[in-house]
TrEMBL record:
GO terms for biological process: transcription initiation at RNA polymerase II promoter. One of its GO terms (cellular component) is transcription factor TFIIE complex. InterPro entries: TFE, TFIIE/TFIIEa_HTH, TFIIEa/SarR/Rpc3_HTH_dom. This is HTH TFE/IIEalpha-type domain-containing protein. Pfam families: TFIIE_alpha. Residues 14-49 form the HTH TFE/IIEalpha-type domain. It comes from Eptatretus burgeri (Inshore hagfish).
């Protein structure tokens, strides 16, 4: 078990896929919130809205 490596960052392709899905199915506000979270993974809720 000590040989297993955990990913510490989300791959760029997965980030792009999630962006496309959110932009296709959700409101623009949700897409903007996702963009903020992709750039800065640790954000307070007050700073997003």
């Amino acid at each position: 078990m000590s040989d297993s490596k955990a990913l510490t960052e989300v791959p760029a392709a997965l980030k792009r896929l999630v962006k496309y899905i959110v932009r296709g199915f959700y409101a623009p506000e949700h897409a903007l919130a996702l963009d903020i979270l992709i750039r800065n993974p640790c954000v307070k809720e007050e700073d997003i809205w």
